Amino acid sequence: MIYLDLFLGFLRVGCFAFGGAYGAIPLIREVVHSNGWLTDEALTYMIAVSESTPGPIMVNLATYVGSRQAGFPGAVLATTAVVLPSFAVILLVMVILRALLQNRYVQAVLRGVKPCIIGIILATGVHMLVSSCVSLTEIPAVNGRSAVIAAALAGSILTVRIGFGKKFAPVPLIILSAVLGMVVYGI
After folding, report:
1. Helix boundaries (H) for the chain
2. Does 93 lie in the same domain as 29?
3. pLDDT mean across residues, the chain
4. pLDDT recorded at residue 11
5. Does this model's pTM top 0.70?
6. Phi-psi category of 186—alpha, beta or left, where left has phi over 0 and alpha has psi -120 to 50?
7. What's the domain count of the chain?
8. Using alpha carbons only, what angle is made at residue 11 by residues 7 and 17, rounded to the nearest 5 degrees?
């Protein structure tokens, strides 16, 4: 019977938890208290632990409560129940989206929106680059440190692109940016 209670309780949380994890806490509290699974103090501690560990709070809480009440099978069951509604909605959206993407009118809209998105991203990047490298106060001035980092990153991207014929992956680019920032601005 505990398995059914865990499944139905956390399925209800997964179905009706709107507004993110913090919006789900009252619903989780109600399910946990009505079944007598945790005291309010224990739940408060678990919310704090769930916030500081990787993963969604609802999933962490469901896993903990399920494990505490019914061991490993309970943890799997509670976790499955809390994510099942979202998973079903995503599958439904994917089925609908796949059908929509085959429509020639939707494809035409997406082809028309693509250059706009590229322009917005490019404009944002240029704005960030200019605003970090050039101060446009009363007397315009170039921030030499930012300009050095921007030039080094651009040079690295071009070297990899032209020299090796590959794209510069985001993670190494982020690491290179961090190292350059530490070197140029000091630690």
Report:
1. 2-16, 21-35, 40-52, 57-101, 104-133, 144-158, 164, 170-185
2. yes
3. 87
4. 93
5. no
6. left
7. 2
8. 150
Quick one: tokens of 102? 């085959």
Residue 107 forms part of a structural domain:
no
User: Of 101, 125, 158, which one is at a domain's C-terminal end?
Assistant: 101
Which amino acid would we find at residue 27? L
- Of the candidates 38, 19, 16, 17, the one whose C-alpha atom is nearest the C-alpha of residue 29 is 38
Which pLDDT tens digit goes with each residue over 33-46? 999 998 888 888 88
CB contact at 8 A, 128 and 134: no
169 shares a domain with 81 = no
In angstroms, the CA 105 to CA 111 distance is 10
Q: Given pLDDT bands bounded at 50, 70 and 90, which one contains residue 80?
A: very high
Torsion angle (degrees, nearest 10) of CA 127, 129, 133, 138? 0
Over residues 106-110, mean pLDDT? 89
Which residue do the tokens 């999933």 mark? 59
In a domain, 175, yes or no: yes
Residue 153 inside a domain? The answer is yes
Structural domain contains residue 108: no
Domain that holds residue 91: 2-101
Which of 101, 129, 144 terminates a domain? The answer is 101
